[in-house]
Amino acid sequence: IISQDKDAFIRRYAKTERPLHVIGEDIQRYKRLQMDIQQQEFKVVVDFIDADFTHLMNELIKHCQQWHAKLTELLHQNAKEQLDSLLG
Fold first, then answer.
1. CA 17 from centre of chain
2. Is the pTM of this model over 0.85?
3. At the top level of its lineage, which domain of life is listed (predicted)?
4. Which residues pair with 43 in a beta bridge?
5. CA distance linking residue 75 with residue 81, whole number of Å
């Protein structure tokens, strides 16, 4: 979720002209991933080592939210184009 260029991916994704429900499913996938991340323990203590993963979790959640926003915008654009073509 963090290693890809989101804008470049969305441009390629948009060219595939996926059905609206497929984009919706992908949006849900990132929502579920975000919920999974939020449910994880962010502090771990092993013997004398105290590890705090709060910053990492927050960054991962932020990336999920960015993917969600970009896919939602794409869904909106595609739905608007389809509606315009029906009305046009």
1. 18
2. no
3. Eukaryota
4. 52
5. 10
> Quick one: what percent of the chain has pLDDT higher than 90?
68
Secondary structure (H, E, C), the chain: CCCCCHHHHHHHHHHCCCCHHHHHHHHHHHHHHHHHHHHCCCEEEECCEEEECHHHHHHHHHHHHHHHHHHHHHHHHHHHHHHHHHHC
CA-to-CA distance for 39 and 36, rounded, in angstroms? 5
Per-residue pLDDT at 20 = 82
Residues of the chain with pLDDT under 70: none
| Exposure string for 18-41, b = 16+ CB within 10 A, e = fewer | beeeebeebbeebeebbeebeeee
pLDDT of residue 54: 94
Token match 């497929």: residue?
A: 22
